[in-house]
Amino acid sequence: MADAVFNWYKNAGTAEPGTKRSETTLQAKKHLSSMGWVFWYAQKNGRQELRYQSPQGKVYYTLKAACKGYIDGTSGAEGGGGGGMAVAVAADLEPKKPLKRKSLTQENPAFPKSLPFKSLQPPKRRKKLRKQENQAKTRVIKRASIRIREDLVPNSSHRNPRTVLSWLIDNNAVSILGKVYYRNKAGNPLMRGRITRTGIQCDCCFRVFALTAFEAHAGSTNHRPAANIILDDGSGRSLSDCRRQVHDSMMTIPTSAKKDDSNPHGSDDVCSACCDGGELICCDRCPSAFHVNCVGLKEVPDGDWFCPSCCCGICCIGTVTDDDNFLACQQCECKFHIGCLKLKESNELAGKNNWFCSHSCENIFSGLRNLTGKPIPVGTNLTWTLLKSKASSNADGYTDCPDGLDSCAENHSKLNIALDVMHECFEPSKDSYTGRDLVEAVIFSKGSKLKRLNFKGFYIAVLEENDDLVSVATVRVHGDIVAEMSLVATRFSHRRRGMCRALVDELEKNLAKLGVQKLILPAVPPAVDTWVNGFGFSHMTSDERSKLLQYNLLDFQGSIMCQKPLKTEL
Q1: What would the pLDDT profile of 241-276 be if each residue is shown by its tens digit?
Q2: Do the strands 518-523 and 280-282 form a parallel or antiparallel pair, or are they unpaired?
Q3: Disulfide engineering: 190 pairs with which of 96, 218, 463, 481, CB 3.0-4.6 Å?
Q4: In this structure, are residues 397 and 253 in contact, taking their beta carbons and an 8 Å threshold?
C-alpha cells in the first residue's frame, strides 16, 4: 500500500484509470495511519482543516505535503532514490498494528452518537487519538493541582488586613497615616482622620473605624463612604477616585501582552473531564479532548464524534457546522439546535439574544444578578456579598464597565482582595498549557476557547468583618441541577471562628432560594472529613459524577468530589 502514497503524490490526488479519486485518497491515508501518522482537525478562519502529523512529530497542512514528507523520510533512510520506495513497500507487508476500531458502545445516554458524517479515513483505521510521544509533548499534560498552605509565608503581606484601604496602600494609591476628611453635601469637612490598614483613625477620639462606620461617626447617612472620604493633600481625590486609578492601571493591558490560549494542534492536550493527559479522543467541533472511558465509551467511535458540550440538549446530536445552528443558554451554557427548539412547542424563548433553555435558568440568571454587589448582614459586624467580574476587554485592550466606573472599580478592588485571600491560603497553581494562574482566572471569570479553562460563569462569594475580607468561595451554577463551589478559603488569622460556615451557609441558602438542587465541591483529602462531618457533604460516586459530565466542572489532581443536596424553596 505504500505505492498508494507515491501514486497519490505523483498524480496530485487524481485517480488512476478504473479507480475513484476518493478511493485513492483513502488508500493513501490508510497507509499513513498504519505507519503511525496521526490526523486531527484544527480551526482556521472559522473552518476546520485536517492536519497530518508524522511519527517524528512534524505537522503537515495538506495530504500532498504529508505524502511528500513520508516519501522523503523513507528515501532518506536508504540513501535516497528508488530504494526508498522499495523499503516502504516492504514495510507495508508488516505494518504497525493499528488500534482496533470496533462498533461504538454507549454506556451513558449523556454521550450520544454523532450524525453519520462520512469519515475522511477508512472506518477501521481512523486515527482520532492524540499520543504524546516525546518529552516535549508530555511536559504539557500534567494535571492541574492545587495545594493548601500549611502556614503563612514568612514576612509576606498576607499578615496584613484585607480591606480596601490595605489594597490601596499596597498599590501606592494612598499613604498610610495619610490625612483624610469626610465631606458633607456642601463639600465641607465633617470629620477628619488618618488612613490605616484596618480603617480610618478619627482625629477626635483616636478610634479606628471601618469606612461605613466612619461615615456614620461623621453623622452622615449618605451610604457612600468611599465617594465622600477625601484625601487632605490638596488633590481633592476621593477614595473612589483612588480605586478607579488602580483599576484603570490594572485593566489597561496592551492587546499584544495578552496570552493566546488556543492550542496549535487544534485540540487540547489534557482530558476535559479528569484533567489528566495520555491517549485522548478529540471532539470534531471544539478543542476539547477526553479519555475514552471518561466519556462513557468502550471504544473509539468511527466517523465524527462530538463531546457532550457540543451536542444538542434535545436531540443529543452534534454537527461540524458553525454556531449559527446552535443557541447556547446564558446560564447553564448547554447548546440546542434552533430547529429542535422550534419543534418543541413549550419553548417560547428561542430566537432571543440573551437566551435561556428554561424558565428555571432564566430565573437563576436574574436572581444571581440581583444578588450581585449587595451586602447581606449575616451576624455581628459580618456581611456576605456576591461578586462577579463586570469589566470585559475590548479590541483596544481596555475595558468597558456596564454599571459605571465607580461600581466597576469597587467590584474590581474587592475581587483583587479576594484573590489575595486565595493566594494566602493556596500555593500558586498554573495551568500547564497556558501558564496562567488558575485561581486568578476563576476569580475574574476569564473565558477560554478550551472548555476546561472557560471560567466566565463563576461568581465570588465573600464574607467581610468590619470591611476586612476574611473568607472567599468561588461558585458556578449550572442551571437548577447543580452548582459547584470549586475553591473555598479563610484567612489564617480568622480560622476556627465560624467564618467559613457563615460564608457557606449563606451561599447554600441563596442557591436553595433559586431552586438549585445540589452543591458539589472538589475537596483535598485532608479536608474531606471536615466537609463530610461538619458541613453535611457526602462522597460522589463515579456513576453520580458521570451524570454531570455534560457540565464544565473544575477539578484538581488528587481531589475528591463531594456533594450535598439543597433544600430548594421553589
Answers
A1: 998 888 888 765 444 344 545 444 456 677 777 767
A2: unpaired
A3: 218
A4: yes
Parallel/antiparallel/unpaired status of strands 488-490 and 468-478: antiparallel
Give residue-wise pLDDT tens across range 283-342: 887 777 888 888 878 888 877 888 887 888 777 777 655 555 778 888 988 888 877 776
d(Cα 522, Cα 486) in Å, to the nearest integer? 6
Cell 462606620, residue? 213
Here the cell at position 32 is: 499513513
What does 279-291 look like in DSSP terms, one character per residue? SEEEPSSSS-EE-
For 506, counting Cβ atoms within 10 Å of its Cβ (0-12 exposed, 13-18 middle, 19+ buried), the class is buried
Cell readout for 227 is 465617594
Range in 95-109, 376-390, 429-443 with the lowest mean pLDDT:
95-109
CB 371 within 8 A of CB 510: yes
SS3 209: strand
In the chain, the amino acid numbered 458 is F
Contacts 24+ apart (CB under 8 A), 236-244: 239/164, 239/165, 239/168, 239/174, 239/180, 239/211, 240/406, 240/409, 240/410, 242/168, 242/173, 242/174, 243/164, 243/168, 243/173, 243/406, 243/409, 243/410, 243/412, 243/413, 244/405, 244/406, 244/409
Containing H/E element for 73? helix 63-77
Residue 343: φ, ψ to 5° = -80, -15
3-state secondary structure of 473: strand
